[in-house]
Amino acid sequence: MAGTTKTQWLEARAELLILEKAHSKAEAELARKRRDMPKLEIESDYVFEGADGQTKLSALFNGRSQLILQHFMFGVGWEAGCPICSFWADGYDRMVPHLNQRDISFAVISRGEIDRLQGYRARMGWNFHWLSSEHNSFNFDFGVSATDEELEAGSMVYNYQTRPVMGAEQHGTSVFELIGDKIYHTYSTYGRGLDRMNGAYGYIDLTPRGRTEDELPFTLAWVRRHDEY
Question: Whole-angstrom Cα distance, residue 129 to residue 127?
Fold first, then answer.
């Protein structure tokens, strides 16, 4: 609404505030239902490759009862990580201490070889805990890596539905809880479900032009690694 008066602007803003508050309440209710999801016991204590050797899934809790694992698209033999995953990853380091204070540990998992992951992490200037699932079935079990059979068939189950394979690797976030000596899978989200985890997107959505992605070949086609702009 160009050329409006201040009174008209304030009236429009007050109307929008009503919608924003309703949205906030709906989000809070959705978060409650997310927390009420049933817990699925994880039977395998997956072994990952880290910078200092092998690490089990149970060890990633690091004395805390909750664990968030970020599925980062970096396949075996890749020279660099997915630029879109990297856009998200730029915000992880400063977030981790606050998660830790709330009894939550955080790590990033990729299929790529650990030395390649560490090299790319150094290039990007990141410090978060990054591990390789190259030698276990974790990525396949959580639906973020396509099997050879799925690649040949051209379809895979991703985000809880069968869809055409868009690539050998996909992104997502999975959450776990440690109760006694048992590990439970409590939640996973994929695709656009990760939008809320990107702080830059939150700010972009406040601007008058927003994401301006409608005319792009695909959502996020504009994103580059932060050292490539």
Answer: 7
Q: Which amino acid is at 9?
A: W
Type of residue found at 175: V
Question: Rounded distance, CA 145 to CA 94, Å?
Answer: 28
Binned at pLDDT 50, 70 and 90, residue 1 comes out as low
Specify the DSSP element, H or E, that contains 110. Answer: strand 104-110
| Rg, C-alpha atoms of the chain | 20
pLDDT digits (tens, 9 = 90+) for 33-70: 999 999 999 999 999 999 999 999 999 999 999 999 99
Report the residue count for the chain: 229
Residue in the structure block whose two tokens are 């030395």: 115
Assigned CATH topology for domain 40-204: Glutaredoxin (3.40.30)
Q: Degrees (nearest 5) of the Cα angle 157, 158, 159?
A: 125
Provide the pairing of β-strand 66-71 with 104-110: parallel
**Is 0.90 topped by the overall pTM?**
yes
Q: Collapse the DSSP code of 86 into the 3-class scheme (helix H, G, I; strand E, B; otherwise coil) and give the result.
A: helix
* Mean per-residue pLDDT of the chain: 97
- 158 CA to centre of own chain: 14
